[in-house]
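Everyone, carefully examine this protein record:
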Amino acid sequence: MSGLRRLVLAAVLLAALPLAQPVRAAEERILNIYNWSDYIDPKVLEAFTRETGIKVVYDTYDNNEILETKLLAGRSGYDIVVPSGPYLQRLIRAGAFLPLDKSKLKNLGNLWPEVTSRLAAYDPGNAYAVDYMWGTTGIGYNVAAVRERLGANAAVNSWNLVLNPASANKLKECGIMMLDSPEDLIPSMLPAFGAKADSKRWDDMTLVTDALYKVRGSVRKFHSSEYIQALANGDICVAVGYSGDVMQAKRRADEAKNGTEIAYVVPKEGALMWFDTFAIPKDAAHPAEALAFIDYMLRPDVAAANTNFVAYASGNLAAKKFVKPEILSNPGIYPDEATMQRLSINTAWDDRTQRFVTRLWTRVRTGR
């Protein structure tokens, strides 16, 4: 065989061999989370990444409407979201979530049965979500400022504190803020009008919004997160908000040593018990990482670390032994049995009622 022919044959044989593939680095594991603002201990996220190698991309929001809009539009880009009860219910009906693969959640047994059973009103069989935190919607207040304006014997444990125009007007100067959330305020205040928190009667809802309309001139702002720092700084004296947010404000005031004493009450007429849950969007790009995160968050020590940081009650019963005594013994965070009996849940409104409530709330917000 001539030299030329040998070279041609060698070239043909080389061409037939599979090309050597470059060694590829292990694909980076990522988890995209969309959660409420100020609602997790950053050290927990860092520890999760160290242990699992999963990089966390973390975004925040401050109302359920933003989350719902993103999920219903599709392609939200998130793998874990944290909807509240009625929104969870509505989004389940819309097919927005993946059912949980419970075989991958070995820490499910740590959940609090009473909380889980109440959550099932939104998620039958607890098929799509697990509770992260739960709490109440009530009244946070600056003790000295309220006493100064209403007197030492004023009844602060009633919705009349903010719904009575005379009382609200006296508190106007020191500042009132309320949640920008009709889904929380209306059901919470319905018991003050003799109605059930889960009433779907439009007349009942109108009673609440009419009362809010009458005091809106005394309300400095409707916002679902700004009241935390405002209460801590002493910039306002009353906030209708979430229990844990008020506890955060109290802690910030104590740490600042600014002389502001903050307290929280569940009104005697009753109030709303709410739940924030972990769920996985149907189009999540990283469902395996999402399940790993939920299971990690269900560890008792991890759940307690988050409760100790945000001052909300955990839906994890096994976590209670790791929760700081001053949090566990605080009835504003972990209510006693008598208070628990005054707490109600509210299920989702239908689309027609939702539109009606939106109109009512726009009137409260704008005065028109």
Remarks:
- The longest strand covers residues 129-142.
- The chain is about 45% helix and 15% strand.
